[in-house]
Amino acid sequence: MTADQLKDLISAGLPCEHITLEGDGRHWYATIVSAEFDGKRLIQRHQRVYATLGDRMKTDEVHALSMKTFTPAEWAVQGDAQA
To which protein family does this belong (predicted)? Predict the structure, then answer.
């Protein structure tokens, strides 16, 4: 699977304001910003992303996905901190 394919899968099931992916085809690192994360704990955010991938996680099509998840407000603060 390519980064574009994985990005499309996540974006199709979760409205994202920002998403970046890096990886080697099996092991992925994602930064995802979505308003749907508002009010959700970290585990709930990750579960929401995993739900968009469905069986692809179970069939090893996506072997590993590490992620940082942010609400738009958190992302704005994150961006200010990096500036």
Answer: Belongs to the BolA/IbaG family.
Q: Which domain holds residue 37?
A: 3-82
Give the model confidence (pLDDT) of 18-50 as tens digits.
999 999 888 899 999 999 999 999 999 999 999
Q: Residue 70 sits in a domain of what CATH number?
A: 3.30.300.90
Taking the CA atoms of 32, 41, 9 and 23 in sequence, report the sign of the dihedral they define.
positive
Task: For Cα atoms 77, 9, 36, give the angle at the middle one, nearest 5 degrees.
Answer: 40
Domain count, the chain: 1
